[in-house]
């Protein structure tokens, strides 16, 4: 099980221009197969980010 758990990666990114969640993921080299929370709420790839937003990107997890 320890092989599956990875240390979280924290990165601070300053947004200085209007961009969508999808554009941010592309800029960071992260696939669209993630859940994106903006200010604590799940947002779509089309959501427009603002400079003051707090963004958390989490991998989708499946299980049963």
Structure commentary:
The protein has a 3-stranded antiparallel β-sheet, with no helix packed on it. The chain has a two-stranded antiparallel ribbon with strand order 1-4. The protein contains 1 helix and 5 strands; from the N terminus they run E-H-E-E-E-E. Strand 2 and strand 3 (41-42) form a beta hairpin. The protein has a domain at 19-59. Helices cover 12% and strands 25% of the residues. It has 64 residues and is an alpha+beta fold.
Question: Can you give me a brief rundown of this structure?
Answer:
By secondary structure, the protein is α+β, with helices and mostly antiparallel strands. It contains 1 helix and 5 strands.
Distance between the termini: 16 Å
Shape: globular
Number of helices: 1
**Which range does the strand content fall in?**
25-35%
The strand order across the widest sheet is: 3-2-5
Structural class: alpha+beta
Question: Taking all residues together, what is the mean pLDDT?
Answer: 85
Topology of helices and strands:
Layout: E1 19-20, H1 21-28, E2 34-38, E3 41-42, E4 48-49, E5 55-59
Defining key terms:
64 residues; alpha+beta; three-stranded antiparallel β-sheet; two-stranded antiparallel ribbon
């Amino acid at each position: 099980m320890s092989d599956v758990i990875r240390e979280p990666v924290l990165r601070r990114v300053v947004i200085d221009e209007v961009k969508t969640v999808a554009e941010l993921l592309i800029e960071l080299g992260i696939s669209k197969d993630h859940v994106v929370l903006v200010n604590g709420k799940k947002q779509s790839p089309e959501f427009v980010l603002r400079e003051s937003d707090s963004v958390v990107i989490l991998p989708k997890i499946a299980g049963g």
